[in-house]
TrEMBL record:
Name of the molecule in the record: Cupin domain-containing protein
Classification via Gene3D superfamilies: Jelly Rolls (2.60.120.10)
Keywords tagged on the record: Dioxygenase, Oxidoreductase
Pfam families per record: Cupin_2 (PF07883)
Domain Cupin type-2: 114-178
SUPFAM superfamilies: RmlC-like cupins
Superkingdom of the organism of origin: Bacteria
Length: 378
């Protein structure tokens, strides 16, 4: 069936009411001929294609720990981790994205749950991943043979095409946050995936090997300059270090919020070319300035509690809650107790492409409503 041209191309705004009927008819024929030959006019759709500012389909949203953990535990009762399914992962699906399992157009965010003495088999893929541990210990993620022990507040990297598996050797379940560049890599038609051959798990060379080389502050291997890679060779960042640095920063600055970026110790660049990771400490009772930036931001509340306003709506968060600010959303925070927020973004991509933009509003945005969750429509 032929799609009517008037549906394919919205009203031609250049057409004024006095146009002769003969011209209208000729225009109709012209649009049909264009359509038939897969040619499309820009003038009927330029406003959508070249919007004055980004118009992300993703909406500001939040997923609460109290909702997610019990559901993940129910999954663990009913669904075993097998070679086929590979991972017990629940994706945070943004309600603005038509049911796709993505938190924004560029980022994947999920919680992953491993029961006591469970493991998830080795595989590798071209999308890069980061893990931020929400609670528990006794689990390690092995990345190309380097078993990275995971404890609450630690950041663990799984760079592109590195073999990785997860193993919980403890008597308690373990939950962490996964951030991946998967939607972006899919958009770029650059996704590859491979299962580890033979055995499910890869051999472990040792524990925390990258940490032993790269964690010492201020020194890096002298030979490394020739082999600086685009992702960080340090695969794990400990919360104790993050916390200490943030505390010291806060003491010096007195600001409502201090932040640090996790970086590649060899280059100072973001941990991966596609993913940037930050940690912030919020002082209680002080609202931060309202800012906008191009790109997607996913926040993980780790410790403390507070309120973040995103595009005029307030999101009240506590430990383990995860919320998202789409590109160019107005964002500010106010903690009610000393708080730590982890954040993953696609900022390195925008920077590399010359598309970064950031503004600080002259005054705080108005709060027009409060996020209540799935009771409301997006
Ligand atoms: O743990 O390897 O959330 O491959 C999505 C894809 C986690 C993982 C995710 C993955 C993983
Ligand atoms: Fe994976």
């Amino acid at each position: 069936m032929e799609i009517p041209v008037t549906v394919r191309f919205p009203t031609d705004t250049s057409l004024d009411p006095g146009t002769a009927p003969e011209t209208v008819e000729r225009l109709g024929e012209l649009y049909s001929d264009l359509d038939r030959l897969d040619l499309q006019p820009l003038w009927t759709q330029n406003k959508q294609l070249l919007s004055r500012a980004p118009r992300p389909k993703a909406v500001p949203w939040m997923w609460r720990r109290v909702d997610m953990i019990p559901l993940a535990a129910r999954c663990a009762e009913l669904i075993t981790i097998s070679r086929g399914g590979d991972r017990r992962v629940l994706a945070l699906a943004n309600p603005g994205l038509d049911g796709r399992p993505f938190i924004t157009s560029t980022l994947w965010a999920a919680i992953q749950y491993l029961g006591a003495h469970e493991s998830a088999p080795a595989h590798r893929h071209s999308p890069g991943a980061i893990r931020f541990v929400l609670e528990g210990e006794g689990t390690f993620t092995t990345v190309n043979g380097d078993a990275c022990d995971m404890r609450a507040g630690d950041l663990v990297l799984t760079p592109p095409w590195h073999w990785h598996d997860h193993k919980n050797e403890s008597d308690a379940p373990m939950t962490w946050f996964d951030g991946l560049d998967l939607p972006l890599v899919n958009h770029l038609d650059a996704t590859f995936f491979e299962e580890y051959p033979a055995e499910a798990m890869q051999p472990v060379r040792g524990h925390n090997l990258s940490e032993q080389i790269y964690r010492a502050p201020g020194t890096v291997p002298a030979v490394a300059s020739s082999g600086v890679s685009v992702y960080s060779p340090l695969l794990v960042y400990r919360f104790a270090d993050t916390e200490q640095a943030l505390r010291s920063l806060a003491r010096d600055s007195g600001a409502a919020m201090v932040s640090l970026e996790y970086v590649n110790p060899l280059s100072g660049a973001s941990v991966m070319p596609t993913l940037g990771c930050h940690a912030s400490r919020l002082a209680p009772g002080q609202r931060t300035v309202t800012e906008r930036q191009v790109g997607s931001q996913v926040f993980v509340a780790f410790r403390g509690s507070g309120t973040t306003v995103i595009d005029g709506r307030s999101f009240d968060w506590g430990p383990g809650d995860i919320f998202v600010a789409p590109s160019w959303a107005a964002v500010d925070h106010e903690a009610s107790t000393e708080s730590y927020l982890f954040r993953v973004t696609d900022a390195p991509v925008l920077k590399a492409l010359g598309l970064s933009r950031h503004t600080v509003e002259g005054r705080n945005q108005d709060v027009l409503g409060k996020f209540v969750g799935h009771a409301e429509a997006p």
